[in-house]
Write a structure and sequence with these properties.
The protein is α+β, with helices and mostly antiparallel strands and 283 residues long. The protein has six helices and 15 strands. The model has no long low-confidence stretch (mean pLDDT 96). The site of succinic acid has 7 residues, from strand 14.
Length: 283
């Protein structure tokens, strides 16, 4: 019996049932999940009572582990990080700005898996913006200005010692973030690029991790990136994901932007996260 895939009814996202992720998956099931992932970009698996071993095994069914810089793994694990906020925490929300994970790397991760360990009774939704649909619907004039351009990506705004999650922030934060001068590095990626597995074009990344456009003056680049941002995060391109305890979500960083939301002050929130490393482009 195959998996059951129920689309969210929003621009992307689907709920997957009929599979138990506490044991190894056979090749046919992995193939079905991958096909659903490539189609819907964000998959939610409710009612999965997963250990960190299960989470790691699931991740490795879809590619190698990605490299998670600037956030220390949880004790005893190399590839699991904690997305954590304590009930009384007052530091700015982690990942509240739109981004695609680690887009400043030379080979950014294909996907991210996030498992809900402690989910507050309200708030804490994760938003996903479908970058294929945003590109398809983009006004021709804006698209023309972006076509053929290379974006300059960097982690400096977040993880440099002076960044948002830098040295001044770390002592008040429950997450184990390790700012570093390595965040100052830059990396070019095309603004518009084909998805490595489906070939479908998408916008890749947004202002934040994108700090400029190669060969363009700072003012002009900022204006263009801001215009792009306003378009690519419009409500009609956004899927709002509501968490449940024991739910696993996997998303495709090549297809969507995402961001965290608040609204759960006074409650703990804890999720365990792994990344699926870049896979070779499909032949
Ligand atoms: C993340 O970007 O991994 C965190 C998303 C969230 O906390 O909702």
């Amino acid at each position: 019996m195959g998996i059951s895939v129920e689309p969210s009814g929003q621009v992307c996202g689907a709920r997957v049932t009929g599979v138990d992720l506490t044991g190894p998956l056979d090749a046919g099931t992995v193939h079905e999940i991958r096909a659903a992932w490539l189609e819907h970009h964000v998959l939610a698996f409710p009612d999965q009572d997963l250990s960190d071993d299960d989470l790691e095994r699931f991740t490795l069914s879809f590619g190698p582990f990605g490299d998670d810089p600037f956030v220390a793994p949880i004790p005893g694990r190399e590839h699991v990080i904690a997305i954590r906020r304590d009930a009384d925490e007052t530091s700015p929300l982690f990942a509240e700005n739109w981004h695609t994970d680690w887009s400043f790397q030379a080979k950014p991760p294909a996907g991210t898996c996030l498992y809900g360990v402690t989910i507050p009774p309200h708030g804490g939704d994760t938003l996903y913006a479908d970058q294929h649909t945003a590109l398809d619907a983009m006004p021709a004039g804006l698209r023309l200005r972006l076509e053929g351009r290379q974006a300059v990506h960097s982690a400096r705004g977040g993880y440099a010692p002076s960044g948002m999650y830098g040295e001044a922030d770390a002592p008040q934060r429950s997450m184990d973030i390790r700012p570093s001068d390595e965040a100052l590095a830059t990396q070019l990626h095309p603004v518009i690029r084909p998805h490595p597995e489906t070939g479908r074009l998408a916008l890749f990344g947004c202002i934040g991790y994108i700090i400029g456009i190669d060969g363009m003056g700072d003012d002009e680049a900022r204006e263009l990136l801001f215009e792009m941002y306003q378009w690519q995060t419009r409500d009609e391109f956004v899927y709002r994901h509501e968490w449940e305890p024991h739910m696993l979500v996997m998303w495709d960083n090549r297809s969507v932007l995402h961001r965290a939301t608040g609204g759960y002050d006074g409650f703990d929130r804890l999720l365990h996260r792994t990344t699926i490393g870049a896979s070779a482009p499909a032949a």
